[in-house]
C-alpha cells in the first residue's frame, strides 16, 4: 500500500474490540484498496478511494424527512444512534458494548467474515457503530426490525463504518431490514454483518439501498446456517453512486437452505455489484440465486454467483439465474455464474439472459391505447417487480413494490399485477 494512503487511514478505535482491530488494520495497510487485479473486484475497482481522505464525523449532520419506516426502526445518522432509548431487550448498540464486550458477542464478532477481504479488514479496524442482536430460542417476531443508516446534510466528505452481529437461536424467526437513505453528501459507508442461524432458525433479510447520489456503499454479509435453518435475502439497489454487496453463505447443517434474490435499478453512471458465494457443506442443502437489473444511461451492474458443493454434501440442490434489461445502448451488465462441484449426487443449474425490451410487448400495449413511454415503463416494472415473488403477499411486499414503482415512475395501476 502506498505511504500516502496509509497516512490517510485513521487510527483504529481504542476499545474492547482491539484484539480484532489491530490485525485487521495491519492487513488493510499491507494490502490496500482492492483493484481489478483482485478477482473478486474485477469489475469494481476501488483503488481511487485510497487517493482521498475519508474522515469520521464528531456529530451528525442535519437530516431531511425520512421515508416511512417498514418496521420498528433504529436510526443512525452519520453513525450516531438517534433513538437508543428505544432499543429492545435482545438488541444492543455496539457502542454501548465496546468497553467490555460480552463473551457471547466476542464469540461471533470477527469469526465469520473473511479476514482477507480488504473491505472487511477496513471495517473491522474502524467500525464505530452498529447492532448486536441475539434472538432467543423459539422467539418469533411478528413485526420487522429496521436498521436505518442515514447520511446527513453537510459540506465535505465523510465515512461511516457500521457492524452487525446477529445470532438467531433454535427455532427463532426474524425479519430484518437494513436501509440506506439520506442526502447527496459525499459519503463512504462500509458495513459488515456476521449472522449465525441455529437449528431451524429463520431469517428474512432485506437490504434496501435508497442512498443519495454521493454515497458509496461497501457491504459484506457472512452467514452460517445450521441444520434446517433458512436464510432469505432480498437485496434492492435503488440509490447510491456505487454499491457493492458481498454475501457469503455457509450451509453448514443438513437441510439448511438459502434463497438469495436481488434487483438493481440503475441510471446515469451508477454502479452496483453483487458478489454471491454459497458453500454447500452438508447434505440435503438447497440454495437459489435470482438477480435482476434494469439499466439506463451509462450504468453498470455486476453479478458474480459462485456455488461450491463439498464432497460430502450429497443430495444438494442449487440454482442460479441472472436476467438484465438494458434500456440504453450504453448500459452494461456483467454476469458470472460459477459452479464448483465435488459431490456426484447433486442437482445444480445456472442461466443468464441480457437484452432490451421486447418490441412485441410494447406493440401489444400501444395497440391498446397505452402511449410508448408509459408502455416502456410498464414492461420494465413488470420485469423488475418479479423479484418480489419470493415474498408473501402482505403489507411489506406492497410497500416495497410501491418503492420500485416510484423509482421507475411506473403507473400505480401496475401494482395490481402483484
Description of the structure:
By secondary structure, the protein is of the alpha/beta class. It is built from eight helices and 19 strands. It has helices spanning 3-8, 18-31, 94-97, 103-106, 118-126, 359-366, 372-385, 395-408, and strands spanning 72-77, 80-81, 91-93, 129-135, 145-151, 158-168, 173-182, 187-197, 202-209, 215-225, 230-237, 242-251, 257-266, 271-280, 286-295, 300-309, 317-326, 332-341, 347-355. Helix 2 (18-31) packs across helix 5 (118-126) and helix 6 crosses helix 7. The radius of gyration is 21 Å and the shape is globular.
Radius of gyration, CA atoms, in whole angstroms: 21 Å
Q: Order of strands across the biggest sheet?
A: 2-1-5-7-9-11-13-15-17-19
Beta-strand fraction estimate: 35-45%
How do the helices and strands follow one another from N- to C-terminus? HHEEEHHHEEEEEEEEEEEEEEEEHHH
- Count the helices. How many? 8
Structural class of the secondary structure composition? alpha/beta
Low-confidence stretches: 1-8
* Share of helical residues: 10-25%
| Termini Cα gap | 50 Å
Mean pLDDT: 91
Principal-axis shape: globular
Q: Compute the number of structural domains.
A: 2
* Main β-sheet description: 10 strands, mixed
Number of strands: 19
SSE blueprint:
Blueprint: H1 3-8, H2 18-31, E1 72-77, E2 80-81, E3 91-93, H3 94-97, H4 103-106, H5 118-126, E4 129-135, E5 145-151, E6 158-168, E7 173-182, E8 187-197, E9 202-209, E10 215-225, E11 230-237, E12 242-251, E13 257-266, E14 271-280, E15 286-295, E16 300-309, E17 317-326, E18 332-341, E19 347-355, H6 359-366, H7 372-385, H8 395-408
Parallel strand pairs: 1-5, 4-6, 5-7, 6-8, 7-9, 8-10, 9-11, 10-12, 11-13, 12-14, 13-15, 14-16, 15-17, 16-18, 17-19
Antiparallel strand pairs: 1-2, 3-4
Helix pairs in contact: 2-5, 6-7, 7-8
